[in-house]
């Protein structure tokens, strides 16, 4: 990998209302594939760790609606598996 993927625009972050009202924060670490056009592939999305399962779907939605600069190998865009943390702070 000559140039790893980088986020260009982040999808909207939806905070679970019950957790937000309770002042509960958390973090989700996810693994997914960014395709050669810079879009996350839904089929490859996996939650590696989560402080609260209620954050998993909002983290997935945010990542799936994000746009990335695709990874490059020898100047060509390629699919790349990446890990990303998504934080939720009330």
Account of the protein in words:
The chain is α+β, with helices and mostly antiparallel strands and 90 residues long. It has a single domain, classed as 2-Layer Sandwich (TolA/TonB C-terminal domain). The protein has 2 helices and 7 strands; from the N terminus they run E-H-E-E-H-E-E-E-E. The protein has helices at 17-21, 56-64; strands at 6-9, 26-34, 40-50, 67-69, 71-73, 76-78, 80-88. A 3-stranded antiparallel sheet has the order 3-2-7, with helices on one face. The longest helix is centred in the middle third of the chain and has 9 residues, at 56-64. 20% of the residues are buried.
pLDDT below 50 for ≥5 consecutive residues: which ranges? none
Q: Main sheet? A: 3 strands, antiparallel
Query: Alpha-carbon distance between the termini?
Result: 37 Å
Coarse shape: elongated
> According to CATH, what is the topology?
TolA/TonB C-terminal domain
- Oligomer state of the chains in this structure: single chain
- Percentage of residues in strands: over 45%
